Amino acid sequence: MGGVTIRPAVAGDYQRLGGMFARAELGGPTMAGQLAFVQQRLNGAAFVADAGGELVGASGAVAFGAIGWIGGVAVLPEWRRGGLGRDLTAVAVRWLENAGTGTVSLHATAMGRPVYERLGFAVAGRWLRLTTVAMAAVRTPDGVRAGRPADLDAVLVLDRAATGSDRSRLLRAVWGRGCLVAEDPSGLVRGFHVPKTPRPAGRHRWTPASEPGATVAADARAGVALLAAWQRPGAAASVVLPEANMAGRGALQALGYRVTTATVLMRRGPAPACLPERIFGGFNLFWG
Ligand SMILES: CC(C)(COP(=O)(O)OP(=O)(O)OC[C@H]1O[C@@H](n2cnc3c(N)ncnc32)[C@H](O)[C@@H]1OP(=O)(O)O)[C@@H](O)C(=O)NCCC(=O)NCCS
């Protein structure tokens, strides 16, 4: 679009991007925080559409081995329908291709879906958001304990099997205080939970503390135990997870959660060897 430059984001952009995302109705400062985390901690990329100094759009990309994610695609209402959404997505796709990802995934809103379809993305499933206004009081299930540094190797193996991708940089960045693991009776780690707020506390906080973080488990028993274990009675919470994870959805509904929204998972490139029934909670709707 004339007069608009698409360029990599710089540190000074993120404060202003919070306002841009709020006006675009895509998460506000939370989304700006996710983009900063992706660029500064995960070796990812963030792009802005700069109209003579005004930030009018953005996009982001992160590579987890063979799978790349695009998120944070937004354009201010008065700048829409001029090709900026397409160009911001295309620059992120190119960045991921150069980073060696054969598959690019994203969670699409209804507004974004036609833009992505024209760029070769196809629907690959749905994710649900389940929400509760007040978490229930639940006894910590047997076999769930605080995560330790020594659990990280098992966590990385579990995560790779569930997501079909290499999220080791992300998991190393966030593994620490508040993390949980579920063990089977023999002491084998079968699942893990990462709270939403990563270390160091506050600095790269990307969503409200009331939102629980990621939960991955090799079997439904471990996944459901972890979902119960992080409930904080009375606090509001929401969880995003693949629609295909029936056990996770059922457990959350039994805890009083209700489905509030559904988003479409889209993909460009070969289907990864992922097991959505093992994902009992995604970090967010940027990188899943
Ligand atoms: C989704 C979003 C980023 C699209 O941004 P955009 O800049 O309007 O995207 P584009 O201009 O590339 O495409 C939008 C439409 O404009 C049309 N268009 C593009 N250039 C055009 C032009 N020069 N003249 C007329 N129409 C044009 C496209 O064909 C497309 O049409 P369609 O979707 O109705 O079929 C924007 O609507 C948005 O920020 N929405 C809110 C946040 C959101 O949902 N983000 C997606 C997250 S997954």
- Secondary structure class reads alpha+beta
Order of strands in the sheet with the most strands?
A: 1-2-3-4-5-12-6-11
The share of residues in extended strands comes to: 25-35%
The CATH architecture term of the largest domain is 3-Layer(aba) Sandwich
CATH class annotation of the largest domain: Alpha Beta
Write out the distinct hetero groups bound to the structure: coenzyme A
Which percent range fits the helix content? 25-40%
Q: Which regions contain 5 or more consecutive residues with pLDDT less than 50?
A: 198-204, 206-210
Number of domains: 2
How would you describe the overall organization of this protein?
This protein is of the alpha+beta class and 288 residues long. It folds into 2 domains: 116 residues, Gcn5-related N-acetyltransferase (GNAT) (Aminopeptidase); 151 residues, 3-Layer(aba) Sandwich (Aminopeptidase). It is built from 8 helices and 13 strands. The strands form 2 sheets. It has an 8-stranded mixed β-sheet with strand order 1-2-3-4-5-12-6-11, with helices on both faces. Strand 2 and strand 3 form a beta hairpin. About 4% of the residues have low confidence. It binds coenzyme A.
Write a concise synopsis of the structure shown.
The chain has helices at residues 14-23, 29-41, 84-98, 113-118, 152-163, 168-174, 220-229, 246-254, and strands spanning 5-8, 45-51, 54-64, 67-75, 103-108, 122-132, 144-146, 180-183, 189-193, 215-217, 237-242, 258-268, 279-281. The chain has two domains: 5-120, Gcn5-related N-acetyltransferase (GNAT) (Aminopeptidase, 3-Layer(aba) Sandwich); 131-281, Aminopeptidase (3-Layer(aba) Sandwich).
